[in-house]
Amino acid sequence: MNLPITEFSIIWFSHIENIYDAELKLSQKKSFHWTEDSQMWDWDNCRITWVKRSEKELRVVVRSSKMVYSESRKKEVKIKYMYGFDVTVDNIEYPQVEKYREPIENKEKKYGQLRERWVIKMSKDYYIWQWSLNENGQSIENSEVFKIYKAIMKSIEKTALPTKKNIFLVENVPNDNRIIPVIYQPAIDSWKNFVREVHCHKVSENEYEVTLLFENEHLRKHGKLDILYRLFRFFRYGRVTDIESFKIFVDKEKPTSLQFKGIFSCEFTVEYDNIHGDKPHCGKTPIHDIKYYFNEDMHPIIFINTANHAMSVHDTNHKLWKWEYIPWEKDSAVIYDKKPRSQIDKFSWPKND
Hints:
This protein folds into 2 domains: 12-157, no CATH class; 166-344, no CATH class. The protein contains 3 helices and 20 strands. The chain has helices at residues 144-157, 226-237, 341-344, and strands at residues 12-21, 33-43, 46-54, 57-70, 75-88, 96-105, 110-121, 126-131, 166-168, 182-186, 195-204, 207-214, 243-251, 254-259, 288-289, 292-294, 296-304, 311-312, 322-325, 335-337. A hairpin with a 2-residue loop joins strand 3 (46-54) and strand 4.
């Protein structure tokens, strides 16, 4: 379910989550681990969508975005973020008025003055809200938050219809009838480990080869090997940019399955850096049915789950925000092209800044 949105949203999303450590070490190693401490995280400029999973459960998806200047693209691009969570419908509370300190800086958790907000408590850990507009003569019943609440309640009352495909509908994204995947990756800014390019090469009527170029690759659990690993990549491949490829298989002009040869993540998370699932056995590599699609069944959803970019059809890092890469958008943070892996491997990619 979606509500009409504008380019900027007044909606905030806050959630309680454990604090993770992903700091830059002296060796340039970016380590990751969850701590025992938790805190409230606040995100502005949010869009809220949801889907009814059962009579008692909703899957809620929060999206946010910001414009930044890309050194690699030499222009302003839109960085998109996504976070998903499940809630029990009985836990969703009627919109309330309460006081909340204005978030100033999310990471350092600095707060400003105490202000009035209108909030939907989705559970004890998740809150959808906006600042009160009482001073402008507006009541909570006429607010954007209240519209979201009423739309959620209306969708709960409807009978959940069985569907053959799990298609996530997202507004304000241009249609594209080409077979192009949408990629999700844990959004850990300090690693500078993002996707730079997406290439979708048509091998035949029934097969596509997708190649992803990453800004960098850093080992996590093997920090002492990180510098040696980067030197090895540069002298062995003439680059430190990591490149990974997978296949999309097509039936009746629609993508139906995927193959992650040697890069399947299984159930491993971003803490792991040496995952190479689905290595060929007796000349055969497993094939996985596509689990989710983006807006229509031409865009399979892929999750990058581990530090060495092993992937899957499902997410294993549920507690982390994701970067959302939609390659065909004009202001996308990634470059889209159709080069085959064999051609990409011939380039000598420059070292990172």
